[in-house]
Amino acid sequence: MKIILIVASVFFLANGCKTNNKVTSESSDSMETNEISAAGNNKNAKLMLNSSYDVMEDTIGKYYISKKDGDSTVFEYTLSEKGEEGLADAYYGETVIFEFTDDMLPLSLSNDQLDKVKLMSSKHCKCPDAGYYKVEKGNLSVSKKGEEYSIALTFNVEGVDQKLSTINSKLKK
Known about the structure:
Helix content: under 10%
Number of helices: 1
Mean pLDDT: 83
Strand content: over 45%
Number of domains: 1
Order of helices and strands: HEEEEEEEEEEEE
Low-confidence stretches: 1-23
């Protein structure tokens, strides 16, 4: 009995405590990587081909986005954190989104130039600063070699407490 318990414990420790599981998927119109930590936190990078989005403003001056078909490529990166078990409002997430066309590549933008790609950051939680924000301070570079896109972004949204400030991602079709 003890041997079975020891073998089961070793198996669980060897397979159940991995810090990251990475999944890559692709289709004809998108490329995606998904990384899940042992704590259940999720980082997802996605390129959507033949897409676009509009930045809209509601009646109280808050931004939101409306995705649509288009001639651009949209990059979306999401950080999701599991909340405390049993709490309905414990979810926390952040998303960064921007769009570009291949004829803009290689792309290197900073600060007020980031408006050229409609760079937005959003915070999803039950907190006073939840919502979408235009990113006006940061550095973005996007390049493409063959079918692989490389994206590097560092940014800061002034006045917003954020966990996500650096993204380095490679997505291959």
